[in-house]
């Protein structure tokens, strides 16, 4: 068998040797020069690629070093692979400078934050972004807005320069997707943005609103009281000795009395508006400052909430011949704060009455959407008003935002009603939304998590 193999190889080898001997030294030299030129070009291309890679790396390092945000990159075992100077200042020893290295250290050991570690583990487990806010204590309380995002690498690079994830608790490097474009989870990128100052300013603003509201309440009550007293005194004053004597005094006195009455009405109307504004500011301040912490939930008859909101605006609706229709299943009960829920519905119905035309109808509906843990109690108010331009819809629930400023003030609005609706919904863990069709009306909807109360049928 060996002899047969030798015979098969001998012939082509001999032919190749003869061809090589037939070539002149000059031809061999030219061939070598061509090969060397090809190798030189390839080496130059590789050198340029390496130079570009180093340049990109230096640019990335310069960007990370200049960032005020804290940036940390972790592998799948929660060990720090990269940290910028802001991270070293935040997580290093309190007496340390930004030159101390964090790379290679365990993330929990370096940060001493179980909250951050839990978020990193959740990101590794779900392979999805995690956004959150948290407080860290480094001599003082500091608040951060954070983003944890999965870091992927091409599958060909997995394990190339990283140790195997064999340590206890390590997350396996599993591929995402399939085929040649599959990506391998390489770790997590964590970005922390310091919002301590923003939080402090927000707290100052809330405290300012609350304090100013309380300070203004007393003088406004006094203005209202004196205006009412003057009007009652004028109504109780005698008309005069005789009609002849009154007529002799001329029309000047009548004009003065009419002007006095008009001024008193203006004082009282504006005092009422200021009182409404302060009351709305107080509600907003409490909702923003305490959120759902002070929310007392109770068994609530939903139809009663809708009926009482309608009752509060019944006189205004009757003055414009507007009908209020309620559609709510009998016996529908939910766990909610009845007072706040009624306030939210009242704000929506009051707006609907203000902007609806004479003789129109306003519909209030309540229903349960979804099932189980996804169930939501939906409360909707539908009017037939002029509608709201599409450009104004995204900002409609902002404080003091008005679509038609002149008309809103004319109708007595404070610009806070819808903001209160939104915060009441948020305090219940829900949302407030709006749909509108110009010339056809608007639909405002409050959706809150639904937990059936005892007695619900």
Description:
- This protein has helices at 2-22, 25-66, 85-91, 107-111, 114-126, 196-236, 243-248, 251-290, 302-312, 314-319, 338-355, 405-410, 417-427, and strands at 70-75, 80-83, 130-137, 141-154, 175-176, 183-194, 298-301, 323-327, 333-336, 361-369, 376-382, 431-437, 441-449.
- The protein is of the alpha+beta class.
- The radius of gyration is 38 Å and the shape is elongated.
- The model is unreliable at 95-99 and 157-172 (pLDDT under 50).
The structural class is alpha+beta
Largest sheet: 6 strands, antiparallel
> Helix coverage percent of residues?
40-55%
Q: Would you count the extended β strands for me?
A: 13
Low-confidence stretches: 95-99, 157-172
Radius of gyration: 38 Å
Q: What distinguishing features does this structure have?
A:
alpha+beta; 13 helices; 6-stranded antiparallel sheet; 5-stranded mixed sheet
What's a concise summary of this model?
The protein is an alpha+beta fold. 50% of the residues lie in helices and 20% in strands. Strands 1, 2, 3, 4, 5 and 6 form a six-stranded antiparallel beta sheet that branches. The chain has a five-stranded mixed beta sheet with strand order 8-10-11-13-12. The chain has a two-stranded antiparallel ribbon with strand order 7-9.
Provide the fold topology.
Elements: H1 2-22, H2 25-66, E1 70-75, E2 80-83, H3 85-91, H4 107-111, H5 114-126, E3 130-137, E4 141-154, E5 175-176, E6 183-194, H6 196-236, H7 243-248, H8 251-290, E7 298-301, H9 302-312, H10 314-319, E8 323-327, E9 333-336, H11 338-355, E10 361-369, E11 376-382, H12 405-410, H13 417-427, E12 431-437, E13 441-449
Parallel strand pairs: 8-10
Antiparallel strand pairs: 1-2, 1-6, 3-4, 4-6, 5-6, 7-9, 10-11, 11-13, 12-13
Helix pairs in contact: 6-8, 8-13, 9-11, 11-13
């Amino acid at each position: 068998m060996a002899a047969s193999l030798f015979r098969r190889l001998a012939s082509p080898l001999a032919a190749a040797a003869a061809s090589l001997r037939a070539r002149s030294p000059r031809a061999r030299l030219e061939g070598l020069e061509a090969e060397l030129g090809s190798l030189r070009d390839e080496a130059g291309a590789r050198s340029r690629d390496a130079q570009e890679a180093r340049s990109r790396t230096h640019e990335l390092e310069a960007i990370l070093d200049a960032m005020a945000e804290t940036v940390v990159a972790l592998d799948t075992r929660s060990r720090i692979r990269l940290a910028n100077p802001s991270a070293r200042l935040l997580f290093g020893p309190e007496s340390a400078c930004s030159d101390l290295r964090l790379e290679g250290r365990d993330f929990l050991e370096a940060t001493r934050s179980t909250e951050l570690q839990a978020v990193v583990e959740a990101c590794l487990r779900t392979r999805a972004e995690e956004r959150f806010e948290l407080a860290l204590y480094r001599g003082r309380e500091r608040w951060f807005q954070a983003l944890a995002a999965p870091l992927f690498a091409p599958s060909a690079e997995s394990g190339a320069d990283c140790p195997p994830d064999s340590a206890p608790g390590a997350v396996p490097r599993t591929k995402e997707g399939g085929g040649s474009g599959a990506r391998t989870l390489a770790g997590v990128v964590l970005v922390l943005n310091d919002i301590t100052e923003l939080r402090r300013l927000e707290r100052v603003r809330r405290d300012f609103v609350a304090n100013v509201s309380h300070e203004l309440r007393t003088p406004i009550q006094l203005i209202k009281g004196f205006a009412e007293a003057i009007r009652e005194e004028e109504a109780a004053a005698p008309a005069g000795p005789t009609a002849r004597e009154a007529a002799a005094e001329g029309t000047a006195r009548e004009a003065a009395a009419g002007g006095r009455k008009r001024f008193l009405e203006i004082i009282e109307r504006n005092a009422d508006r200021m009182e409404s504004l302060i009351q709305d500011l107080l509600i907003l301040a409490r909702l923003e400052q305490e959120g759902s912490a002070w929310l007392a939930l109770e068994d609530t008859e939903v139809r009663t909430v809708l009926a009482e909101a309608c009752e509060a605006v019944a006189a205004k609706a009757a003055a414009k011949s507007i009908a209020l229709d309620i559609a709510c299943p009998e016996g529908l009960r939910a766990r909610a704060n009845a007072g706040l829920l009624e306030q939210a519905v009242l704000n929506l119905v009051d707006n609907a009455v203000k902007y609806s035309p004479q003789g129109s109808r306003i519909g209030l509906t309540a229903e349960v959407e979804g099932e189980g843990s996804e169930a939501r109690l939906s409360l909707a108010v539908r009017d037939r008003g002029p509608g709201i331009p599409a450009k104004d819809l995204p900002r409609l629930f902002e404080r003091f935002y008005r679509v038609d400023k002149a008309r809103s003030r004319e109708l007595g609005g404070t610009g806070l009603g819808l903001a209160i609706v939104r915060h009441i919904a948020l305090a219940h863990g829900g949302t407030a939304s709006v749909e509108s069709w110009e010339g056809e009306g608007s639909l405002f909807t409050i959706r809150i998590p639904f937990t059936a109360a005892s007695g619900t049928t």
